[in-house]
Design a protein that fits this description.
about 0% strand; little secondary structure; about 60 residues
Length: about 60
């Protein structure tokens, strides 16, 4: 998959928008469950870094 074909998001499922200095977004994976239904596709956040913290489960 090329970088151009990977969609950009503000947060998953939301279009990119400007960020304020010091912006921090925190939520659980389940908070967007109605959007991704447990399947999070490849995506990018071009204006911010992303850290995920998993305590259980598995992935591929």
């Amino acid at each position: 998959m090329s970088q151009r074909s990977i969609p950009d998001f503000f947060v998953y499922g939301e279009p990119v928008r400007p960020l304020d200095v010091g912006f921090l977004h925190v939520e659980t994976v389940l908070a967007r469950g109605n959007i991704h239904l447990g399947e999070v596709a490849a995506h990018k956040h071009p204006q911010m870094g992303q850290i995920t913290f998993w305590t259980s489960g598995s992935g591929t």
